[in-house]
Amino acid sequence: MIELVMVIIVIGILAAVATMKLTASLETAKFEATRAEMEQLAFAIVGHAAIHASGARDDFGYVGDVGAMPPNLDALATNPGYSTWNGPYISQNDDNDDFKKDAWNAEYIFFDTLLRSIGSGSDIDLVFASSTSALFENTISGHLVDAGGIPPGAGHAGSLTVQLLYPDGVGGVAAATSPVGNDGSFILSDIPIGDHILRAIYVPAADTVEYNLNVNPGKEVFVTVAFPADLW
Q: Per-residue pLDDT tens for 56-99?
């Protein structure tokens, strides 16, 4: 009888240890699944810096297409009514709300540049940008010349305009403009991340040169704009 009791005790101890290890493994798997899903949500919001096409970044997510933060995570899967929206930015399974919930079935918290999971009982945080200003307050500066590399000078600078087209945050397209200095310099401020169109317009010759311009988070862009003809 004593031997039987000892066997039962040992089996109980082994079962308890196995249960503890299994529980820990399940929690680790949930943690890893949640972190992976949070990374996918971050990519959906601001894009993936490693995705390139023709040598330039090609993925800026919801923010790059719309020019504003999504009002909620639903906007990553369903167009909130914006013509510049180019989603869905996140994949869905049979449960359409699953992408909004962590592995413990708790909804993610999304505010400012932070995604947070609370389902484990502890906060799991992912910060997807250093600040909102890094996403929406970038600067583009540059130098404009003609085909001979000559700046416009006082006689032509007043007839030149540099224009940047970018999403305005509410489904349309905004145009930021800058005058051009005698030395060809120009500057545009408060520009959101994304792949935008930069135009230089010289009125007397009805001449326009156009560039696709990448604006990355927290980076100042400098570009030399050259007309393909000797204009001055």
A: 898 999 999 999 999 999 999 999 999 999 999 998 765 678 99
pLDDT of residue 4: 54
Report whether pLDDT(210) > 90: yes
173-179 sheet: strands from edge to edge: 173-179, 160-167, 194-202, 207-215
pLDDT of residue 68: 97
101/19 same-domain check: yes
Phi, psi torsion values for 42, nearest 5 degrees = -60, -45
Name the average pLDDT for the chain: 90
What's the predicted TM-score (pTM) here?
0.85
Residues 82 and 161 both lie in one domain: no
Quick one: 217 and 120 in the same domain?
Answer: no
Q: CA-based diameter of the chain, in Å? A: 109
Domains contained in the chain, number: 2
- Tell me how many degrees the CA angle 36-96-120 measures, rounded to the nearest 5: 40
Could you tell me where the beta strands, DSSP code E, fall in the chain?
52-53, 56-57, 109-111, 114-117, 124-127, 138-145, 160-167, 173-179, 185-191, 194-202, 207-215, 221-226
